[in-house]
Design brief:
single chain; 657 residues; 4 domains; seven-stranded antiparallel β-sheet; five-stranded antiparallel β-sheet; elongated
Length: 657
Amino acid sequence: MSQKEKGKTRKGWREKVLRHFTTLVLMLCAVFAFNAPLIASAEEVNISAEEIKASEEDTSVNEAASFTVSIPDGALVKGSSRQLKISPADAKVKSYASSNKAVIKVTTGGKITALKTGSANITVTLTSGQKKVLKLTVMADNSDMVVNRTVDGKKALWRFKDGKVCKDKGFSTDGRTWFYCENGLVSSKTGLYTGTVNKVKALWFYKVGRVMTGYTGGYRVNDTTVWFVQRGQVDKTLSGNFYAGGKTYRVKDGKVIKSVKGKVNAFYGQTFGISIGEEKKIESENVKITLTNQYQASKWVDGIVSINGDEHYFGLEYDENEGTFSVSYVEYIKEVSITCVKTAGSRFYLKVSKAAEVKKPFRVSGRETGRYVTKDFEYLESENLIIFLPKGIHFNGNVMVKLEEYVAAVENETGYKRKVVDSDSYYTRMCVQKSILGTDIFRGVDPDCKKVHVYIDVTEDESPECVASYKGDDYNYILIHEYDLDVNNEEYFFSTFIHEYTHYVHLTNHAGVSNIINEGYASYVEELVTSKFTGLTGDKLYQERFYGYLIKKGSVTAANAEKLFIADYRSSRNDAYRYGCYFVKYLNDTYGRKSFNSFLKKVTEELEKQQKTNSSIESLSGEQVSKLVKTAFSENVFKGFAAWLNNHPEYTKETDY
């Protein structure tokens, strides 16, 4: 699926996103003082025997071998003998060999004997040709070493120094492995201790007394602290992402902030760089983000987020004024949110986060006496409507009750129910929300637009409007002002919502017709519903409440009625309301609602017929609509309208105002 380039639909819609990218600094192998060991149970660290033995063997030879060679713990001194242990036990040994027979000799049965101080490599070769090399050291009698001896009747691994038991806390070795010792014995504890191992002073990790020089991974001290261990060391200055043992660790100041299975490139909330054509894994091998293409003209970048195999689409949109990119969602992605932090050349620095919980509707009492004001972005929800509110909006607790009554009244007067239109307009929706509200905080609220979306324009810079299409090729919504929510005003009945909702039910059922019919239909229904809720009729309704809709007396005649209709008042929108309101009233009063609705259907059918051969046609011409009007109602319909106006002076006025 390819994405088409999108353009702006309203001025100033884009939310500007620009943050400074912070470079992660990796500093390795720093030395820290640490006065006492941190202790935890051995079960908290899962380390295999292979990891324990890793530092004892020559890995350049042993990588492909499927068997192990070991001897019991404890230093070799002159005269010591040990039996080599081969695992598995059924491995067929071809030969044993010592690289320095003057230091260590080995028999054909695998028994070694230490002859003098020094080092030697013992090579074990199987009949299959596999080899293992064990590095051994024979230590001097006065060395600081760990030996397997019986002292005071207790056989154990003891720490000796200068030929005596050494009870100091610290590290010692048997020539192959390093151990943490205290009270003269190799400790049975697991923890961290600062000391020198292999001539490196550091904070070392040991498990059951054994220094884990071959281990890289996490070590949990308690419920809140997990240290990251690299080859047995903990470096408190270390920060970044590290992969080890089938896991990726996020580390800050030596501590594991988070770890996940598998190899990933970044964690949620962490900035990462990506170029066109690259794929990055975010916190899971099942969450992948890819930038697939960039359009040269607009600089728009296509992006895909794959979550458990399901692909979701987004884009990076360029703001020429700011010179920055921001994320635009082509569809609703419920699992994650994406931010473009910065760019550098052809590289984009993004941040993927878990999507915030979808905002809940603002709760109101449903009673007229309830009075509310929004302190943050909020929305009200009812059976058919969602009203998106900026900060500082005042309304009564029964506002949704009243608006639902208006919805029912409009649908009753028109004979139409609003249609839920499937559309691919999520991008446009987000543009509209950012333009009107300056935020995308409602990103997950009714993403499929099952309800009517109503926005409040507090600036009053925009006229109330309804944008709707029965084809699903646009984002359907209504825009009104804060005072239109004043549903309990005893001095004035605000009817703008009724007007705009009439547009909504009309345009989600049929195509638009012309200025005169579209606005006239909405104005006509607005008058009907207002009369129902206020009880106003006659002059009170027309000459006072809807004076602005009245037609100037004598302006519509039998000679010009059709010409005015065809011209559609394109240069004078207010006159389209005036002519249209009473022309639609005339058609409904004279021919009935059923005939009028049938006419709307015929307009839609004719438009669709023409669009099959010319897809660029958006609406019928004035002449075409005029012809359909005469076909649907009467050849003399326009002359009849002029005569009807003369017989109803209550629908006219003396001036243009």
